[in-house]
Write a structure and sequence with these properties.
Layout: E1 5-12, H1 16-24, E2 28-29, E3 41-48
Antiparallel strand pairs: 1-3, 2-3
């Protein structure tokens, strides 16, 4: 069995439609506030497991 992979992306805080899509696909906010490097964005993440 392989190792899981952490996938991280950024979504603009004003883009609610993309946030909803990310949640539907298993992503969650990495932090509650904005991204430290770009205050207009928030980091989102999901753990991707390898296929069996």
């Amino acid at each position: 069995m392989g190792k899981s992979t952490l996938m991280v992306g950024r979504i603009d805080l004003r883009n609610r439609a993309t946030e909803r899509m990310a949640r539907r696909n298993g992503f969650g906010p990495l932090t509650e506030g904005p991204d430290e490097f770009n205050p207009d964005m928030r980091q989102w993440y999901v753990m991707a497991d390898p296929p069996d």
